[in-house]
Amino acid sequence: MEAELLSELIENDYRNIKEVPGRGICALKRMAFTVGLCYGLDETGYQGRYCFHTWSDADKAFNNWNGLGDPSEDWIKHKGIAGEWSNPNVENNSL
Q1: Cβ atoms within 10 Å of 40's Cβ, excluding its own
Q2: Domain annotation covers residue 31
Q3: Considering 3, 34, 77, 86, which has the largest number of Cβ atoms within 10 A of its Cβ?
Q4: In a domain, 54, yes or no
Q5: Residue 78 placed within a domain
Q6: In Å, how far are 8, 16, 44, 83 from 59, measured between CA atoms?
Q7: Burial class of residue 95 (count of CB atoms within 10 Å of its CB; 0-12, 13-18, 19+)
Q8: Full domain range(s) for residue 71
Q9: pLDDT 10s digit of each residue in the chain, 95 long?
Q10: How many domains are there within the chain?
């Protein structure tokens, strides 16, 4: 990962930044009402994100996610260039 990109991500409040095979640069970021597990980060933004209720939920999912498919934990909704979809295993996914 380029030092310039890393500095820019940190400056924009991305945390726990790491590369995930098949998903590129990924990180956690607090949003208005959720915490996003963002993937495909570059200088222009991200390709997508999974929304979680809490930082703890997002952090646990991020640590367990291998980049294949959706995270197995209780994310609420996916938003990004691939489209939007809700987690069928979570009741309150009205974001």
Answers
A1: 18
A2: yes
A3: 34
A4: yes
A5: yes
A6: 21, 8, 24, 23
A7: middle
A8: 3-86
A9: 789 999 999 999 999 999 999 999 999 999 999 999 999 999 999 999 999 999 999 999 999 999 999 998 889 999 999 999 999 888 765 55
A10: 1
